[in-house]
Every structure is written in C-alpha cells, then in structure tokens.
Amino acid sequence: MGRNIGQFDIPRSVPNLIISPGIEVPDERQPGRLRIFVDDKGWIARAECE
To answer: Which pLDDT score is estimated for 32?
Structure first.
C-alpha cells in the first residue's frame, strides 16, 4: 500500500484486476484473482484476493 502501481511488474500467471476510481467493480468473483484498488494517480489504496 502507498506505492504506485507502476512500480510493480505483476507476473502474467497471477490473475489480477486493477480498479481505479469511477470504474465499476464487476460482481463476478474469480477465486485467486488479486484485486488492486488505486487512486486517480495510481497509488495503491488496498489489495485483496477474491
């Protein structure tokens, strides 16, 4: 948390969803997917696994 998403290289083998302000969060869940919530400047606010 508190770092810019651009500082990370998420491996392609890790399913992920980056969620920015104003983006509708999908209702469907994918077990094992990493959801990363960022602010409007790309700073990570929180991350969670589904």
So the answer is: 92
